Amino acid sequence: MNLREKIAAAVSLAIILTAAVFWVIQIRGVMEMLKMAYG
Amino acid sequence: MDVMSFFTWLEGSTLGHIAKSYGGVYAVAQTVHLASMALLGGTVLVTDLRLLNVALRDVPSNAVADGAHKWFKVALAIILLSGIFMVAGVAMKAYYNDFYWAKMAALAAGILFVFAVKRPLLKRDHSQIPGWLLKLVAVASITVWFTVAACGRWIGFS
Fold first, then answer.
1. How far is A14 from chain B (nearest CA, A)?
2. Could you give the number of structural domains in chain B?
3. From residue B60, how far is each of A33, B43, B47, B55, B63 by CA, in Å?
4. Each residue's pLDDT tens digit, B110-156
5. What residue numbers bound the domain in which A20 lies?
6. Contact B140/A13, CB-based, under 8 Å?
7. For an interface test with B, which of A15, A18, A24, A33 has the most B Cβ atoms less than 10 Å from its Cβ?
8. pTM of the prediction?
9. What is the pLDDT of residues B102-116, one digit of tens each?
10. Host domain of residue B127
11. DSSP state letter for B96
12. Per-residue pLDDT at B152
């Protein structure tokens, strides 16, 4: 693997992991709000 | 000028005045914005689904990526121009909206990813690039543009 491919792999992984954390936090927030509203 | 001062100035500018005062103009700008988003989403999906070997398998992925990237740039330019107009009308509302900033962060990440990582990689002959890397880049690309679109919709509900 050359440097460009290594950078592409690292950046792609970083994007996927960051997005996964972001969406898990958002979905948990929505679930918490629904629990507060409807029990 | 800090960020808040800029947004205050933007809402009070001629652009902000037009966006707030002329509903028809705002509606047209929003329609153009959404149509361009559909075009951008289409170019992203057609490229990434080809890289994932899901769609257009009988067309070389280099040809798909090169052709789609031209329209991606057109769509992005129209999205940015119409987006600046639209935010001018609701600048302070956008400033205090967390999802507006999430969308801007995802958009910045998406633009940087396309022009600094994805495009330079895909300019090369795809048969010389490991298959798993093409698929990883495609998944990251779909993820970042999905986040931009979803955060954009969430602005309206938060």
1. 9
2. 1
3. 47, 15, 11, 11, 5
4. 999 999 999 999 999 999 999 999 999 999 999 999 999 999 888 87
5. 1-39
6. yes
7. A15
8. 0.88
9. 999 999 999 999 999
10. 3-155
11. T
12. 86
